[in-house]
Amino acid sequence: MTAQDLITDGILPLKTSDTGKTALSWMEDYKLSHLPIVNNEEFLGLISEMDIYTLNDFDAPLGNHNLSLKTPWVYTYQPVYDVLKVVNALGLTLIPVLDEKQRYTGAITLKKLLSKTAEMLSLDNPGGLLFLEMSINDYSLTEIANIVESNDVKILNSVVVNQPESTRVEVILKLNTPELQRVIQTFERYDYLVKAVIDDSYDENSLRENYDSLMKYLNI
Question: Does 112 share its domain with 211?
Fold first, then answer.
């Protein structure tokens, strides 16, 4: 899944001639704290509520505002985990998407990003999430599956996340049961590092809380 697949329909970009008052009104309508500024297909920047309140002139055109965010975009071809990294690092509620020629193609909201991430990790299915960390040289999906299935548990989904500038990876397992204690004990007997566990109490409707939890456990 790439950024292109995550673009949210119905989010209109602002123009430099729009005012801060217009931007705040749209942010309230969209339930967002950020909106892109675009003239034709040229992406000019991402404005935040704080940028508008800092200028303290709501009737001034957005072209008069200084934008506090740096490189707040992703390219259409970048995978979902790259999108998660940028959104998390900058604390965004929306991320613009550009094509290879730097043209604006749309934007991804935090809500859409969380929904698709939950779908990708099979969070809608009953069960729990188990987060393992290991050296890439020690990674074996066959061995991991054998350990899980030795406890009469099934893997519904698995994701491998490479850690930047590191030889270590994180493996996220969605299992078909929230009762993970026996599985955890077995992994620990085989000297696996179990970083975290999320059970069925993980509530997708608690948007920011759950997103922050996911980012914390992904460590990105």
Answer: no
Do 145 and 72 share a structural domain?
no
Domain check: are 89 and 187 in the same one? no
Query: Which pLDDT band, with edges at 50, 70 and 90, does 96 fall under?
Result: very high
Q: Over the chain, what HEC string results?
A: CEHHHHCCCCCCCECCCCEHHHHHHHHHHHCCCEEEEEECCEEEEEEEHHHHHHHCCCCCEHHHCCCCCCCCCEECCCEHHHHHHHHHHHCCCEEEEECCCCEEEEEEEHHHHHHHHHHHCCCCCCCEEEEEEEEHHHCCHHHHHHHHHCCCCCEEEEEEEECCCCCEEEEEEEECCCCCHHHHHHHHHCCCEEEEEECCCCCCCCHHHHHHHHHHHHCC
Structure pTM? 0.65
CA distance linking residue 18 with residue 118, whole number of Å: 35
**Does 95 share its domain with 142?**
no
pLDDT band for position 201 (cuts 50, 70, 90): very low
> Residue 127 and residue 83: Cα distance in Å, rounded?
26
- What domain range includes position 160? 122-218
> Same domain, yes or no, for 107 and 194?
no
pLDDT for the residue numbered 139: 95
Pair (207, 135) in one structural domain: yes
